[in-house]
Every structure is written in C-alpha cells, then in structure tokens.
Design a protein that fits this description.
Structural class: mainly alpha
Helix content: 55-70%
Shape: elongated
Distance between the termini: 19 Å
Strand order of the largest sheet: 1-2-3
Length: 305
C-alpha cells in the first residue's frame, strides 16, 4: 500500500494569501468611497456596486481566514487538517453573492416606476475609481485563479465588479447627456444579473467538492487504462478520485497484480511505476494504492467502480 504523507503543505489559497490581502484592502477602500458617493449622488447603481464589493471583501476575508486554518497541521482526529475549511468559505461566499444579487434586482425593479434624480458627475468619478481598482485586483488574482476555488471566486467577483463599474460609467454618461434617470436603474439590473450567475457557478463547484465528485479535469477511465498498462498489473477496481480542497486531489485504488510480481517481491517496483504513470495527471502525494493478488476481490463484501 502506498500513500502520501504531506497533508500539511500549503493549499492553493494559502499560496496566494498576500495577493488576496492586497485585494481585500483595495476592495474595502473602494466600497467605502462608493457608499459615500452613492448616497451623495442618489445612484442605486453605485450602492449596488458598493454592496457587491462589500460582499467581495467578506468573501476574501473568509478565504484568508480559511487559508490560515487550512495551514494548520494534521492531527490524529483530522488527518487532512482543516483544509476543507477553504471549501466551506467558498460556500459562504457563494451564498453572500446570491443574496446581494437578488437584493439589487429587487431594488432596481422597485425604483423603475419612480427613479430618483442622480448627480451624474459624482457618479462618474466614483465609478472610474472603482474600475481602476478592479483592474489592479484582476492583475493580482489572475495567477491563482486556476489553482484555488477561493481565488477563482475572488477573481470572478472582481471581474464582475469591473463590468459593474463600466455599467455605472455608461449610465452616468447617459444621465449627464440625456437626463434619462432610469439609466441608473438599468445599470443596477446589469450588476444584479452579473452577480447571480457567478454565485451559481461558484456554488456548483463547491457542491461538487462537498459531494466528493470526481474532479472535472480528471478522466477516471483514462486513469484506469493507464494503471492497467503498468507491467505486472492485471486489473484495478475500487478506483476513486475526489478533492479535499482546491489544489488537493486525492485518488485511491485496489490494484490486482500477477503472482509473479508478488513471488518476486516486486511490489515496490509496481508502486513506483504507478506513481510515475499517474504523476502528470493526479497529485500522487495524495494517492493510495492497495496491491492485492488475483482472486482477492472475491473476498471483499462490496465492489465499486
């Protein structure tokens, strides 16, 4: 049997904590400016964007706290440590996003029949500041967006914030040039409709992890085929792959080997070959293989894929 012993290493989110901290500070500053600007100008779009950014800040703060928890060493009662805390943080972030998106849409619909006057100059200045901060945030988070659910969630939030800031800028120009106050409501709806689908995508990924689904980028049939091609291997069963947290996939399998392998004491060579053949596709530091003789599967009470 072979298993990895490095469960205490840094998680994907932990490797990008510094960037997340900078984005958190930027987001809080811009959100505060947007709240003041929204109240001063009467713009729902600015307030909606501020609410979205506050939610972003909460999500990033949760992700940072979860990364700190996930970095704590494993114990006998929690053999993977608290790495799954990052997934729970992403769940909370997705729920917050969904709540903000629904509120913005409802408030925009309520204002449609009686849109208030909006000070377009203030609206434009604050939206431009928000857009600039969003661009900086995107550049900071871009390197880690494919490694971590939490970094990906923060990246998508900042990307939508940028789109929201652009919508506010367009609405401000329309109000300034035509006086059409409903442009602010339209921009608010755009922001709300940007938020809700992203919340759904993030929550879908979180649920996949919590249900221990096979990682989307892993072809389990291809893994099974590679294992069967290893010299000495007869078959494989009880093959499972799941994710503990972002960047920490896990694989386990019962590998049937021929009698010559066992008689020749070549189990170590087979394990080395298994790790080598899967190394480019699976994190072999978290892979466990049980080697067994032909016919052993008949003694096992339950057979899986």
């Amino acid at each position: 049997m072979s298993a990895g012993h490095h469960h205490g290493r840094a998680t994907a989110t932990g490797r990008h904590r510094g960037r997340l901290a900078v984005v958190l500070a930027l987001t809080l500053v811009v959100a505060a400016v947007q709240v003041v600007g929204g109240l001063a100008s009467g713009s729902l779009a600015l307030l909606a964007d501020a609410g979205h950014m506050v939610t972003d800040a909460s999500g990033v703060a949760i992700a940072l706290a979860a990364a700190a928890l996930a970095a704590r060493p494993a114990t006998t009662s929690r053999t993977f440590g608290l790495q799954r805390a990052e997934v729970l943080a992403a769940l909370a972030n997705g729920l917050l996003l969904a709540a903000v998106g629904v509120w913005v849409v409802v408030e925009a619909v309520r204002r449609w029949s009686d849109p208030p006057e909006v000070a377009s100059g203030t609206m434009l200045a604050v939206a431009a500041l928000g857009a600039a901060a969003n661009v900086v945030g995107l550049l900071l988070l871009r390197p880690g967006r494919r490694e971590s659910l939490n970094v990906r969630g923060a990246y998508l939030e900042v990307l939508a914030d940028l789109a929201g800031s652009v919508a506010v800028l367009v609405a401000g120009v329309v109000i300034a040039t035509t006086g059409w106050a409903r442009a602010d409501v339209v921009a608010s709806l755009v922001i709300g409709l940007l938020v809700v689908p992203r919340a759904w995508w993030l929550l879908r990924d979180v649920v996949d992890v919590l249900l221990e689904s096979t990682p989307r980028d892993l072809d389990l049939d291809a893994v099974r085929a590679r294992i069967r091609r290893v010299p000495g291997v007869v078959d494989v069963h009880d093959l499972h792959a799941w994710t503990i947290t972002s960047g920490v996939p896990v694989l386990s399998a019962h590998v049937v080997v021929d009698d010559a392998c066992l008689a020749g004491n070549r189990s170590g060579q087979v394990l080395d070959a298994l790790i080598a053949c899967l190394g480019e596709h699976v994190d072999t530091a978290h892979s466990t293989f049980q080697l067994e003789p032909v016919g052993h599967a008949a003694h096992e009470p339950v057979q899986h894929a």
